[in-house]
Amino acid sequence: MKAHELARELNISHKELLNYLQQNRLTRNPAAPLPPAAIEKARNQFKRTAGVTTVVANGERNITLPPSVTVQDLAERLRVSPVDVIKKLMQSGIMATKNQVIDYGTAEIVADDFGATVEPIASEDVVAVESTGEEGNLVTTSREQLFSLESEDPAKLRRRPPIVTVLGHVDHGKTSILDAIRKTKVASGEAGGITQRIGAYQVQTADGETVVFIDTPGHEAFTAMRARGASVTDVAVLVVAADDGVMPQTVEAIQHARAARVPIVVAINKIDRENANIDRVHQELADRGVITRHYGGEYECVHVSARTGEGLDDLLTTIVLSSEILDLKANPDRPALGTIVDANLERGRGPVATVLVQNGTLRVGDHFVCGHIYGRARALSNDRGENVTEAPPATPVVVSGMGEVPSAGDIFQVVGSEKAARQIALTKLQERRSVEGARQGAAPRITLEELARRAQQGEAKELNLVVKADAQGSLEAVLSSLQKIQDPAVKISVVGSGVGAVTDSDVLLASVSNAIIICFNLKPTPAAERAAEREKVEARYYDIIYKLTEDVERAARGLREPTYREVWEGRVEVIMPIKIPRLGLIAGSRVLEGRVTRGSHVRLNRGRDQIWEGRITSLKHFKEEVREMIAGQECGVGLEHFEAFEPGDTIESFRLEREEN
After folding, report:
1. pTM score, two decimals?
2. At residue 2, does pLDDT exceed 80?
3. How many structural domains is the chain composed of?
4. Fewer CB within 10 Å: C terminus or N terminus of the chain?
5. Residue range of the domain that includes 598
6. What sign does the dihedral 548-553-558-563 (CA atoms) show?
7. CATH number at residue 651
């Protein structure tokens, strides 16, 4: 096979293929037939990049990139040699290897040099999709696009059952309601009588309609599970005990349901208790913004008793009616696509996972991939423990056949072959390692300073806050002050509030809502700081209310920009470049004035021109690494991503001190 024939097969230009073959030394004579090894490598290369690069009408290429990417991966997406990418990085003063991770901004600059246009995609939403077949073409897309029905054939779409999440406070009767509906004893088998894991159940109404329930634990320790449950649901059922009223986890459940933007149906349970006070529950819900239809609001509400069964049929009917408005559909004829609801290691079966099939049909023997894990569905069992051969859309099913225990919330996807599943899983594993490596030194997910930058660029539309205070009066005062802040560019939303120290639940809510935690008259606790650092959430503490409102107002208006002043430290003259094994070139220098410190900011001047600015990464006195050198001493200075030293260059050293606004 000749080069032009292979280019036609791969649907690329002849010139593009020749560049790839010559850069990788796969052919010496482009006019001669290509060696089998060159043909195979070219096929693998351009099939692997198929789908992530498209050619638009004006001849430019569009690629999608996550926030961080390796040089090797960027080269594959650009269809160029990694060496060429490394050369471009070196021209920008960045020394990198093909396995090094670079950020989105750097990758965008490199792609522009190669004539490609890049589009960002959140790393949490990057998924690898495989078209049916043996090879499997990887396509980078978002989670939202993957689960969208826009690409489905409308003729194949069928109505699917609603997926309902049951939320509420511990011991308010969530599992007992499901227990009464399913005529089983789920709660009695749980430790302490409370649900310890997310459960997914399928029930039939009196009219023959199917409803899928996700029972999430109500205890505060299981906030993460409730957040995962709310992320896949169509309707949220908020269970409140008539004899207990609205409790902390009830408020938290409301916040999670609102963050998921799903309809809420209120179920007031335990109405048969002697001390039940239904009117009080309605009033407490109204105080939290959940005004039921009994009070002239928009939220459906049903009074039920899990013990006597009163109102359960009305609850199911209300859920079905609420879901009919959503017009829920799925394509049962496509390969299965769903979400991992729960997973654990089971004796005798190995890793198993509860999968909620959201589109397509899952069958025994299907090859699948979820995250970096792939396998084959050896057995499927429904919510009653019965073995089944297939699971249509909106069906919870326990899948065995995984190599390891996946993470709840991972995308579960059926692919065409084991080879394709392995390829996708390997790609996801490499991507996961790259993202984790890049996040080690990453900043918090969003800060007030970052919001100010986005507001000035017209990106920010909403500032989410979780507000905590030392007392109810203080909390009301803070909330009232925040409500008075108005800005046309940024909407300020309080997604959660409460009295007392910051808890893991507050941090998790801020994480899933991309919010900032505002604390008033509270001292930071080590546990809260560790949780915030773990979830990449910023928590700010104030003891003066006008300082709090000023910070939020400035951030919302894009005015809060941290200002720094430079403090001069010293001046160094380069005598001669010195090559150090495994370190590269450093500047053999003499400190002329002041001092120079390892890690300080510097400018390198050549004559009257400034040619580089960055940090000192290495400071040596003879062979020893030192922290600082003073005037009159000679030293070796290593700079970050810069080695083009010349005798006579001068290095100005300074530090940055932040000025208080």
Report:
1. 0.52
2. no
3. 5
4. C
5. 563-659
6. negative
7. 2.40.30.10
